[in-house]
Design brief:
TetR/AcrR family transcriptional regulator, elongated, 186 residues, 70% helix, single chain, Homeodomain-like_sf, mainly alpha
């Protein structure tokens, strides 16, 4: 909870909206409940946004920023493609927590909304481009690198999906080791 005296930024609201999206999709983004969660009045919201749609657009933009090209920049900067892939797989798979809400998976329920489909497309594209480039740098021909990237990404999304309903999933470190063993060419 944020105290009323704390000045919230537009980004604070967008991040709170992302948490709501992770928990319940776009329908969960509502000003009054978010204000209660943040410990502020609705006036704080209206200091940054005119309406809920603006907040949703800002939240989706924040998600694209933090999970697309900009969020992947640290990994993209790793020169050694084997190290890049190992670190990327380890970080991503270890972030998968049993029963934890997921913005990505929740957005799929709203995939017919053009704002959502655009955001998901942009994040998917950034992730697939990085994986494809990495596999190509590891020696796979371009077409095979793209196919391997899709399979690896699908497996990661599948782990995320399974974690939504499986409290008994193996520890994420074990899964990260397996993902590396499977998806890092020898």
């Amino acid at each position: 909870m944020v105290k009323e005296s704390t000045r919230l930024s537009a980004q604070d609201w967008a991040r709170a909206a992302l948490k709501a999206i992770a928990d319940g999709g776009l329908a969960a983004v509502a000003v009054e409940p978010l204000a209660r969660t943040l410990g502020v009045t609705k006036g704080s919201f209206y200091a940054h946004y005119r309406n809920r749609d603006e907040l949703i657009a800002a939240a989706l933009a924040e998600w694209v920023r933090s999970h697309g090209d900009e969020g992947l920049a640290e990994f993209a900067a790793i020169a050694d493609p084997a190290r890049r892939l190992r670190e990327l797989l380890t970080v991503v798979v270890q972030a998968v927590q049993p029963l934890a809400p997921s913005v990505h998976l929740s957005l799929l329920g709203d995939r017919n909304d053009p704002r959502v489909s655009d955001a998901v497309r942009r994040v998917n594209r950034a992730r697939l481009e990085l994986l494809t480039r990495t596999y190509h740098e590891l020696g796979l021909p371009e077409g095979r690198a793209a196919s391997r990237a899709r399979v690896a990404y699908a497996a990661i999304l599948g782990l995320l999906h399974l974690a939504q309903t499986d409290p008994d999933a193996p520890h994420s470190a074990v899964l990260a080791d397996e993902a590396t063993a499977i998806f890092l060419p020898s």
